[in-house]
# Entry
Amino acid sequence: MFLGDHQHTLDAKGRVSLPAKFRADMTGRIVVAKGVDECLYVYPTEEYQRFVENLLTGSDFNPKKQELRRWFTTGAVETELDSAGRVSLPANLREYAGLTKDVAVTGNGNRIEIWDAGSWSRYNGATAERIEDIAQELADAGLL
# Structure
């Protein structure tokens, strides 16, 4: 399970080092894909396959389902960590997430997210202001 947030720097080749405690669960092939909120999602390949299988259920003719599938699969890349524990981020994905230098590498349960450090700080601050209302709304709906 991936937990916590860590500050890192993108190197000149577009690589970012993953925290040592995340590397143990990122052995073998991994997938980097566009996420929501202008961040990148990084999955162990098996987790990404489960995620995509969920997107494949239902009708191929549902326009919203098609958009969601395309969003998370186009531009996604399968890669591996290098010997130094870095993941290489393609230019198109770095551009999408606004990654230039300082990044936040965050754990989100079954995946890692990579954010521009400033974007992460703003997102996290805005969420902190609403977290009690969010928790109450989900509890009232029976989702917590």
Notes: Residues 5-116 form a domain with the Chemotaxis protein chec fold (CATH 3.40.1550.20).
